[in-house]
Amino acid sequence: MTFALTGAASWAQMQANDFQNAQTIYTQIQAQAQRQEMQRWQIATDTQTKIMEIQQETTVNRAKTQDKLFKKWDDYIRA
Known about the structure:
This protein is an all-alpha fold.
């Protein structure tokens, strides 16, 4: 009878350990998923920022080029 109780207690302890290990693994997976999500968010934010910088630079360059061309045309007409 004592052997059966010891076996049951041992089995219950093993199940508790397995459950604890499963919880630990799940927590680690969740933490890794959260880190990956933050990395993806950072990459998307950096990419969008770079796109906006390029668009602004292009717009400024286009305006400068148009101003130069207008000035040359104006100089040509006035000459």
